[in-house]
Design a protein that fits this description.
By secondary structure, the chain is of the alpha+beta class. It folds into 2 domains: 92 residues, Phosphorylase Kinase, domain 1 (2-Layer Sandwich); 208 residues, Aminoglycoside 3'-phosphotransferase, Chain: A, domain 2 (Alpha-Beta Complex), CATH 3.90.1200. It contains 13 helices and 10 strands. It has a 5-stranded antiparallel β-sheet, with helices on both faces. The chain has a 3-stranded antiparallel β-sheet with strand order 6-8-9, covered by helices on one side. The chain has a two-stranded antiparallel sheet with strand order 7-10. It is globular, with a radius of gyration of 21 Å. InterPro entries: Aminoglycoside_PTrfase (IPR002575), Kinase-like_dom_sf (IPR011009).
Length: 307
């Protein structure tokens, strides 16, 4: 109760500050996430998003402004960065969406890929911008995955209670296959042209509106090869295409990646499991790998392609 009271007091003070300093009178507030508010004002609906540092907030504002200047309009606008208490807030117009895209639907899968490719094309020149060269982190695929794998191993005793022995063994073997094969092709990864990757291509970050589709939530922005975003996209899409290798080798926007050994090795890593196990642990429910037989065949085919 005390924490809720403090939180409510903090929101009240923030809203009074917005009205006094910026003339924004908050009429209604809906909490989307602990750090994201949807507010209704006399000037329409807006999204307030909290960041820990001015750098994080200003990085978003700079990215949005420069991309829109270049002609990429399928993203939110940021009207300003507000410093309040020890936090920094961005203020954005609310995007009225019909729905998020759904990777179970073929058209949505295609539209999200087209939008992602367009974003990469517009963001690639920004890699050379002095601000982004110094203020945006580099994404190191091997190191990032090694960190996640070590965290997974740390919780292995608990996960053994929640996962079937065969499926857990499969996850560990897939991860080890990545760590075995990828170092041989690591130099090729570093020769890839880089762009500003989005970093979180979950389907809920693609919105369909009356005027088109939008890509939102750039908080995991990083400098890396575009393929890093496509690896994440594939890990989220594969359950909806029955882990079909043919889907990747025949797709016009993905098949060129399938010719790169480092990319094939990266496909072996069970990124979805490494992403979802924390949620399973919190809920303390059984963790089952969907389409397990199809996935085993997928991994075997990818390993054959590498060899």
């Amino acid at each position: 109760m005390m924490n809720k009271q403090r939180r409510d007091d903090g929101w009240h003070r923030l809203f009074l500050f917005l009205e006094k300093e910026y003339g924004i009178k908050v009429q209604k507030c809906t909490v989307i996430k602990p750090h994201v508010f949807l507010i209704e004002t006399s000037g329409g609906k807006k999204v307030l998003k909290k960041y820990r540092t001015f750098l994080e907030a200003s990085r978003q504002q700079m990215l949005f402004r420069l991309l829109k200047t270049e002609g990429f309009l399928a993203m939110p606008s940021i009207e300003g960065v507000i410093a309040f208490s020890d936090d920094y807030w961005t203020i954005q117009p609310y995007i009225q969406a019909h729905r998020s895209l759904d990777y179970r639907i073929e058209k949505d899968r295609e539209d999200s890929l087209i939008l992602l490719r367009t974003y990469h094309a517009f963001s690639q020149p920004l890699v050379r911008h002095p601000f982004f060269q110094t203020m945006v982190p580099r994404y190191f695929l091997y190191e990032k995955r090694l960190e996640r794998y070590r965290q997974f191993l740390h919780m292995l005793p608990a996960l053994q209670r929640l996962m079937k022995k065969e499926e857990l063994s499969f996850v560990l073997s897939c991860a080890n296959a990545f760590f075995t094969y990828f170092p041989s092709y690591r130099s090729a990864f570093f020769t890839e042209q880089t762009t500003m990757i989005h970093g979180d291509v979950a389907s809920h970050n693609f919105l369909r509106t009356e005027t088109g589709s939008y890509l939102i939530d750039y908080d995991l922005l990083a400098i890396a090869p575009p393929a890093v975003d496509y690896l994440q996209y594939i890990s989220r899409v594969m359950p909806h295409v029955q882990w079909s290798v043919a889907f990747l080798t025949q797709h016009p926007m993905l098949r060129t990646f399938m010719e790169k050994p480092w990319f094939l090795a990266a496909l072996l890593f069970p990124a979805d499991v490494m992403r979802e196990w924390r949620i399973v642990m919190e809920r303390n429910v059984p963790f089952t790998i969907s389409h397990f037989d199809n996935r085993k065949r997928f991994v075997q085919k990818i390993m054959n392609m590498i060899r």
